[in-house]
Amino acid sequence: MSMQTGLIFHPYMKPGRTARQTFDWGVQSAIAADKAGFSSMMISEHASQRWENIPNPELIIAAAALQTETIKFAPMAHILPHQHPAKLAIMIGWLSQILEGRYFLGIGAGAYPQASYIHGIKGGEDTKFLNDMVRESLQIMEKIWKREPFFHEGKFWKAGYPEEERVEEGGDEQHMLADFSPWGGKPDIAVTGFSFNSPSMRLAGERGFKPVSIFSGLDALKSHWDTYSEAAVKAGYTPLRSNHAVSQTVFVADTDKEAKRLVMEGPIGYCFQRYLIPIWWRFGMMDGFIKDKGASAKDVDLEWLVDNVFIVGSPDTVAEKINTLFAKAGGWGTLQVEAHDYVDDPSPWFKSLELISREVAPKIKLPK
C-alpha cells in the first residue's frame, strides 16, 4: 500500500484577498484535490491572521462536499478554547451527519495570542492553560454526543444535556430532542503538533487520536512519533505509522529546474518571504532545519529553504526526497501538502497536486 496524499489549507492568502476569494479558492482546491485522488483536505481555523483568514472552516467544508466525491474533510483545527463546547459539539455532529462519513475532526489549542485575546483569553501565550481548556472542552463535547443527561460545572465552562421526556405513542412530541450526535456515534479526531515533545502528540496517543506533525526538522518529527507512540502504548492503543500524517511544503513540476523556478518566483516564495520565514524564526522551527543540514543561520534564505527543507522537483526527485526522509524518520501514512494562494493562475498548482498523487505517492511505500 502506498502513501496517501492530503491537502492542508491554511490558506496563506495574500493580504487584500476578499473573503469571497478565499472561500472560492477553498472550494476550487477541494474539487482539484478530489479529482487528483487526494484522500483528505484539512482546513484551518484562524480568527486573527490576515494571511490565514478562515474563521469558519465548516462553511468551505459544506460547500465543497456538494462538489466532490470521495475526499474527506476536517477542520484543522477547531480551536477549542475559542468556542463554547456545547455549541461546537452540536455543529460538529450535524456537519458530520451531512457529510455521511466524509468528515473527521481536528482540534487544537491555538497558536496565536491575538486570536485568544479576541476571545477573552489574556493568557493566550500560556500553553498549559490552553491545553487544560482543550481537555475540558473535549470532555463536554463527548458527553453531549452520548446524549445522556448530565450537567457540567467546570473551571472554564458550564454545559449539560437535558433528560428527554418520554412520549407515549400518539402523544405530544414537542419536547423530543434532535439527534446531533456525529455520524457513526463519534467522530475520528486528529491533532497537530510541531514542537519537540509536543503535548498535542501526547494527547493523541493517550486518546487514540490521529497525530498530524507540522514538519519542523528531523529531531522534532522523531520526537513526535516517540511521544505519540509511548503515550498510545501506555493507554492500551497500538501506534501505527500509517495513521501518522506529516504536513510539508511540496511542489512538483516536469523538471527540477522548472519546479524550483515556479516556487521561487510564485506564490509559495512570495508567502515565505513576507510571512512564513519570520514566523518560522519566531516559533523556533528554523533551528531544527539548520541543525538537520549542519548549516549556519546566516545561510538561511528562501533559496536555501527550497533546496534543503521544501520537497521540490520533478516526480522522481520528490519521491527520492520523501523516501530519504522516510528512511531517517521512520515514515508516515499521509503527506499533507501545504496549500498556497494560486488564485491568479491555478494551473501550476493543480498540476503539482496531480503529479504528487499519481506519480509520487505510488513510489512511497507505506510503513507498518
TrEMBL record:
Residues 14-330 form the Luciferase-like domain. Gene3D superfamilies: Luciferase-like domain (3.20.20.30). Keywords: Flavoprotein, Monooxygenase, Oxidoreductase. Pfam families: Bac_luciferase (PF00296). Belongs to the bacterial luciferase oxidoreductase family. PANTHER family: BLL0895 PROTEIN, LUCIFERASE-LIKE MONOOXYGENASE. This is LLM class flavin-dependent oxidoreductase. It comes from Pseudomonas typographi.
